[in-house]
Write a structure and sequence with these properties.
The complex is a heterodimer of chains A (130) and B (550).
Chain A (H helix, E strand, L loop, with lengths): L5 E5 L3 H13 L3 E5 L2 H11 L3 E4 L8 H9 L6 E6 L4 H9 L4 E4 L4 H17 L5
Parallel strand pairs in A: 1-2, 1-3, 3-4, 4-5
Chain B lengths: L23 H24 L9 H31 L10 H62 L3 H16 L3 E8 L5 E8 L9 E3 L3 H9 L3 E4 L19 E9 L2 E10 L7 H68 L3 H33 L5 E6 H14 L4 E4 L5 E4 L1 H18 L4 E8 L2 E7 L33 H11 L3 E6 L5 E8 L14 E2 L2
Parallel strand pairs in B: 8-10
Antiparallel strand pairs in B: 1-2, 1-6, 2-3, 4-5, 5-6, 7-9, 7-14, 10-11, 11-13, 12-13
Classes of the chains: A alpha/beta (130), B alpha+beta (550).
């Protein structure tokens, strides 16, 4: 992989965007932000991030919609769902829609950073979907 | 009509229970039957029938045949003997002398005839008794048949719990049992329980479904009031039953019995005969027995209905509670995520400015947690309804502009349309809460632009918060003001614990106002709050002087 890995943070909570941006920057990533599903899809198209940290409960278009939209694409980024929803039903639904990881809020930022690194490492070995 | 005037026969006393398989009438019949059997046995013994225990008509006939056969043989023998005696007239034998022989033969013949006649009398009595017994047996078996039908009807009625089904089964059982086709069930309704409403009806010429009758009016009304069963035949005397409207054609015979369970009047059961069938006292008694079971069944069905509603309420409450726990845990997780993130980021922060910014995040999110706790406490307080807000003179227009500014700062822009000044008497803290919650609600569930409009209207002020979203469906317009209610449409995509609007309603009502939601002209939702300018009819007090609302 060349250069810093790109991470798109999708969350409608401004303070989550702010803090995660600072942490990821300090950890050597190149963060981008989106506060709703619509913006997220646009930025995924424009910037092709390596990983998307995706919240579920958002206005306009929610995380489920984004997951479903990405599931149909031949090339898509790794998706780590970061949600306050903690039920098994939600987790199963996320994995069924193609999520790579599921992290329940409130998460420990250090753990999340580790998960992002592992996901990127796994993803680089993954053959591109056709 | 067979009879020129109506006959009223109220039945006194408690109706007989069907499960004893007989009643007073059947009891009497049974006694008569034992008596007849004793007499049959006696007559059979006298008549010389060998099978005493179960003499049959055939046995009697056989015995009669025997008797008369023997009688004929005896008489013929006697006649022959008399002829022989005549031939031997000249005999010298003393005991064959004609005079003596004749007397002897005639005496014997007479004696035997007397015996035969006596037996015949007993046989005749016996055959009549046997005939009576046969009639009685068949009548009793008819009654038993009716009682078993009644028991079956009672069982059927009591095994069903759905009210409509119960009423339907009751009516068809009653009609089937009495072999008629017309009838109805009327139940007590109305606030004062002074009205009878037809809830089930069969047959073309009876009381129509939904027909209403005042207690005391007409036949059914009178039966309901007196709680006495009625048996009617022929033309009904209108003077006896005020409010009675004669039907054309009029029923040939009719019965009306009250439905009473544990001393409580539930309604009446009407049965009419338009054909040949004339009801008798026994039919009335039978209907009374059915009515007793029917009343119990109606009570059961009502209890079941009430229980079903109760269970549905409990399930709804449980669903709301589960939803609330999920919402609260979600709402707690979100600020905690930001706080943990800020703490973690501050360890990596390069500059003091960054650290400052992260401290602000922590401050904001802890405030958010506090206000959430505060919100729950407010909701609980409003639920108790004990505390009343402090009313004082405030400028609503200024307050709205201030809240709008705060909202703007928090990233939720608002347009304000308000007069220069608009004074009302209200609790400023409550008003801030009301306006703030409505603006937040409009941003969360509606779409910008959000407008807040203040319009004085006579002795009231109308405060509206209007958005350009999808609006609130008619079915949810009341529910969204209930505690913890989260619309299915938005519960997954919008954060919240379902307390914002219930708090608005609680505070508005505590101030003596009303709040509702309607469609905004041109689309979106319009939340309207109507507030009285002076909710208390009292002397003007100085501004900022607290006055407790009584």
């Amino acid at each position: 992989m060349h250069g810093k890995p790109k991470v798109l943070i999708v969350d409608d909570e401004p303070d989550v965007l702010l803090t995660m941006r600072m942490i990821l920057e300090a950890e050597g990533f190149e963060p981008a932000l989106a506060a709703d599903g619509e913006t997220a899809l646009r930025r995924i198209d424009d910037e092709q991030p390596d990983v998307v940290l995706l919240d579920i409960m958002m206005p306009v278009l929610d995380g489920w919609f984004v997951l479903a939209e990405l599931a149909g694409r031949p090339r898509r980024p790794q998706v780590i769902v970061c949600s306050a929803k903690s039920s098994d039903v939600d987790k199963t639904r996320a994995f069924d829609l193609g999520a790579d990881e599921y992290v329940t809020k409130p998460y420990e930022p250090d753990d999340l950073v580790r998960t992002i690194r592992e996901t990127i490492a796994r993803g680089s070995k993954r053959p591109a979907r056709l | 009509m067979s009879e020129p005037h109506s006959v009223v026969m109220p039945l006194k006393g408690t109706p007989l229970r069907p499960d004893t398989n007989g009643g007073k009438e059947e009891g009497m019949a049974a006694a008569t039957r034992t008596d007849i059997q004793e007499r049959i046995e006696h007559e059979a013994r006298v008549a010389g029938i060998r099978k005493l225990s179960r003499p049959s008509m055939e046995a009697v006939e056989r015995r009669r045949l025997q008797l008369w056969g023997v009688t004929i043989i005896v008489i013929v023998t006697m006649a022959l003997a008399a002829a022989v005696a005549s031939l031997a007239r000249s005999s010298d034998v003393e005991w064959l002398k004609p005079g003596v022989t004749r007397v002897a033969i005639i005496s014997l013949a007479l004696g035997f005839s007397a015996y035969a006649i006596e037996k015949e009398i007993h046989l005749h009595r016996l055959s009549r008794l046997l005939m009576d017994e046969r009639v009685l047996s068949s009548a009793l078996s008819n009654r038993l048949q009716q009682h078993s039908e009644l028991t079956a009807a009672g069982r059927a009625v009591n095994s069903i719990l759905d009210m409509h089904e119960v009423l339907d089964v009751i009516l068809s059982n009653a009609l089937g049992m009495l072999h008629v086709e017309t009838g109805s069930i009327m139940l007590i309704e109305g606030e004062d329980e002074d009205e009878l409403v037809a809830v089930a009806a069969r047959g073309s010429n009876d009381i129509a479904l939904g027909a209403r009758l005042q207690l005391g009016q007409s036949i059914a009304g009178r039966v309901a009031r007196s709680r006495e069963p009625l048996l009617l035949s022929g033309r009904v005397d209108d003077e006896l039953y005020p409010g009675h409207q004669a039907r054309v054609p009029a029923p040939h015979s009719a019965m009306c019995v009250p439905l009473v369970n544990r001393g409580q009047l539930l309604g009446v059961l009407n049965i009419s005969s338009f054909g040949e069938r004339t009801f008798d006292e026994h039919d009335l008694q039978l209907l009374c027995l059915l009515a007793e079971q029917v009343a119990a069944a109606i009570t059961n069905a009502r209890l079941y209905e009430a229980e079903r509603v109760h269970v549905a309420q409990l399930l709804e409450l449980d669903r709301t509670k589960t939803q609330f726990v999920a919402s609260v845990s979600h709402e707690l997780r979100t600020p905690l995520t930001s706080i943990r993130g800020a703490l973690s980021a501050s360890r990596r922060a390069a500059t003091d400015e960054q650290r400052e910014e992260l401290l602000d995040v922590i401050d904001r999110q802890t405030q958010r947690l506090s206000s959430m706790v505060e919100e729950m406490l407010t909701a609980a307080r409003l639920e108790r309804k004990g505390t009343m807000p402090m009313l004082r003179r405030i400028d609503l227009a200024a307050l709205v502009r201030l809240v709008a500014l705060d909202s703007q700062v928090a990233g939720r822009p608002v347009e304000v349309q308000a007069p220069e000044r608009c004074e009302i008497r209200a609790d400023p803290e409550s008003m801030r809460r009301i306006v703030g919650n409505l603006i937040e609600n409009a941003h969360k569930y509606g779409k910008p632009p959000v407008r807040v409009v203040v319009e004085p209207a006579g002795d009231k002020v109308l405060l509206s918060v209007v958005d350009k979203g999808a609006g609130v469906p008619q079915t949810e317009r009341e529910k969204i003001f209930e505690r913890f209610y989260r619309s299915e449409r938005t519960a997954t995509s919008r954060p919240g614990i379902g307390l914002g609007l219930p708090i608005v309603r609680g505070l508005v009502e505590a101030t003596g106002g009303t709040v509702w939601v309607e469609d905004a002209p041109g689309g979106g939702a319009a939340f309207r709050v109507a507030l009285k300018v002076r909710p208390l009819d009292e002397q003007e007090v100085e501004p900022c002087t607290a006055s407790q609302r009584s």
